[in-house]
Structures are given as C-alpha cells and as structure tokens.
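Calcineurin-like phosphoesterase domain-containing protein (viral metagenome), 320 aa
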Amino acid sequence: MTKFWCVGDWGQENRFQKQLVPLLLHQDKGDIQHNKDTPQSTILALGDNFYMDGVSSTADSQWITTWWIPLQSKLLLPWICALGNHDFHQNPDAQIQFSHQFPESLWYMPHRYYLYSPPQTDNVKIYILVLDTVSLCPDTSLRFQSVQIQYLQNPDTQWEWIQHTLDHLYNIRRDSKTPICVMIMGHYPIFSLGHHGNTPELYRLWQLMKDYDVHAYLSGHDHSSTMEIKDNILLLGSSAISFTYPSIPSELRLSTRNSFYYSHPLHSVWSIDIVDVREYREDVKNLIYSNSFTMEINLWSLQNDKTDIVSPLFHYKFSP
C-alpha cells in the first residue's frame, strides 16, 4: 500500500495547519502497526505553499516559520510540491532552488513541472505528473493582480511535455505486467463547484487525460474539500487547510449514472491509499481475476478535535 496526503493551500501557520501533525503521525503509526512493510506517507503539496506572497529566496524566514517549525521538523516526510498562484507573488523559482540546495529537508520540486515516481513498495507502480498550472493557464493567472508576470513560462513548452510524457507512460502501461497508476497534480482545478469555478484553459488537459486513461487529477485553489468521479476519473480538490471559502454551504453528496460528487465546507484534508487488490490462482499460472488496484480515499477533519485523527469524515473506494 502507498499512502498520499493531498495538502493544498496550506501555507499559513495556524491551528488548522498544525492539526496536520497529530493526524499524519497517528495514521502513519496505525498503518505501520497493521503492515510492517508499509512505508511512511508522502505529502503532495498542491500549491499556495506560502501565504500571502510566496517566498523571496531560499533564505526567506517563512521556510522556518511556516514550514519547518510547525510541520516538517515533526513529520520528516517527503513533500512533492507544485506551485500555486500565491507562490508567484514573489519568486516561485526559490522553491525549486531550495529543493536543490537542501535535499535533506525532503522538500522536492526539481523543476516547474516534472514526473515523480515514488519507490515501489508493492506490485503497483505509480507515476505523478506535477504541473505548473499557473504558467499553463496565463489568462486565469493574470486575473490575480499580484501574480508577477515575468515569472510565467511559455505554456506551449509545458503542453508539449505533458503530451510526450503521457504518451510515454501509455506505452509503458501497454507493455507492463505490473499494475500502473497515473495521476496528475496541479494547483488549479479543471472542474469546480467551489469559489473560483472551472478553469477553461485546462479543458485541453481533461481531453488528454481521457485519451491516455489517466486515473486521477489532484488540485487545490478553491479552499474547500471536494471529490468527483467523472468519466471514471477521480477529481480531488484538497485545499481547505489554512483557509476555507464557501463552496456549498454544507456537506453534499450527488450521484448520477456517470458521476459522483462530494463536498465538505470545513477545514479538512484528503488521503489516498493505493492498494494492490489482484487475486491469483496458482493452478492457472497467476491469472488475474480482479481489478489491479483500488484507491482508498478518506477525508479527515482539521477542526482540532482529538477524535478527528481516528475516524475519517468520509470514505470512498474507487476502482479505476
């Protein structure tokens, strides 16, 4: 099993952000007790990593006050990081430079966009495309007046990389006997019922995801916790850490023939466990009889109640 915590819009030090520490430590401890081979969690940071204006350099005090002291000094977990629009208020490349300058900190952002594959712990191989959606969607980004336009990169180059990478992974999956999970993460949502609404510049990405059978898209930005199954693709919005915006006034579940939607308005965070569920029969040479993997999705409250670290607010099992 591989566990990810989807942590978006987290970059304001407050009591809700601090609640990540007991929650993650408790859940990691429980996983290890049930399965001695289970590795520690990996954090997927979905952008807006430092409020309100990003960081200016690798020596910016927010590395200590917002990240290291309240979170990472206690967690010591890998952070796989994407950029958000607030990270472009100053120097977004400082977060890349920090990754190269202090690799022992476990802050991982080698480039603006990149392919990440965690160490394989069971029979499921995982690939995550980490995108710079702020540069990918310039019309959307320039609606936010504090975004520094000089830091936006040419989106065409990133689109070419996305197409090439998805094509490469599709060929790997076609020839592989090992289950492969492909996810994409970026700050802006493709579809949203939240504060900011849909991102039309990402509709092109949605078509690519359908063409190449991508399993999930993980996003931040809306300051709410949402989950949608659309065309058998998981869309997870996890951006209710430091701040929340009203998306839908109360917990909501909607189900139709082809989709499922869930929204929660309070401070909360999603986790994803990717579990190998293949079944074999030795007498037929390990013929597979079931889906190759499932995604166990849980929503956890950050309202600072001691019971929050024990039981999730919501659970969903998704079999792509």
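The chain has eight helices and 15 strands. Confidence is low (pLDDT under 50) at residues 280-291. ok done for today
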